[in-house]
Amino acid sequence: MTSFQDALDAAVADPGSPAWDLIWQESCDQGTCDPASAVLLPWLARTCANFSPQDRERAVVLAGFIAVDADEKSRGLYADNIATLRALTLECLASGGSSDTMFVYLQQAVLGFDGDEVWGKELDRINDGEVDVQCPACAEDLLIDLQPVGSSIEAGLSSQLATRLHAEASRVGHESVVTALTYLFGRMNCPACGATFNVADEVTGSYPR
Predict the structure, then answer these.
(1) Per-residue confidence at 175, pLDDT binned at 50, 70, 90?
(2) What are 110-163's pLDDT values in tens digits?
(3) DSSP letters of the chain?
(4) Within its chain, how far is the Cα of 6 from the centroid?
(5) pTM beyond cutoff 0.85
(6) Cα(85)–Cα(45) distance, rounded to whole angstroms?
């Protein structure tokens, strides 16, 4: 059986190694990372610095998940490593990312390094193509399609963050991400009661604002 240290050694040598799967499994479960996994941040910073932007994509995404779930003490202890990982992820974004899906994960990772407990976890709803929200007026549960065809959302950019993410995606030609962002950060009328609300504001409902 491969030990965790063996997996780390294999991963350092090869960004495509199956050892990365084990590292993910040991660190995160269904998008939530054990706060103790923060001890990996220095190792991830050193390892990612030795990979090309495309080769490091998956590793910095993992680091973003770990950083956003780290406790305040760990974020302070590993602040320099988080800053390094953020800079390395920005390089990945500047190079365009290997796919639309990966580009969103990279944007989300940056937000995780920034400590954004909402969008550091929830931005990848774009990759799902839909988002579940609750109407702030009548509490109706709604599953909202983020695709332009037949959408009930009035496209827009309801925050400075939305504008920034939109500009990043537009700059490197990820048009499907550009479009999805305008729906995630757009407005809609509740089909149950008619109230108008910003979709993104209600995505944050289950997290501290």
Answers:
(1) very high
(2) 999 999 999 999 999 999 999 999 999 999 999 999 988 878 899 999 999 999
(3) ---HHHHHHHHHH-TT-THHHHHHHHHEETTEE-GGGGGGHHHHHHHHHTS-TTTTHHHHHHHHHHHHHS-HHHHHHTHHHHHHHHHHHHHHHHTT-SSHHHHHHHHHHHHHHTT-TTHHHHTTHHHHTEEEEE-TTT--EEEEE-SSTT--EE----SHHHHHHHHHHHHTT-HHHHHHHHHHTSEEE-TTT--EEEHHHHHGGGS--
(4) 28
(5) yes
(6) 6
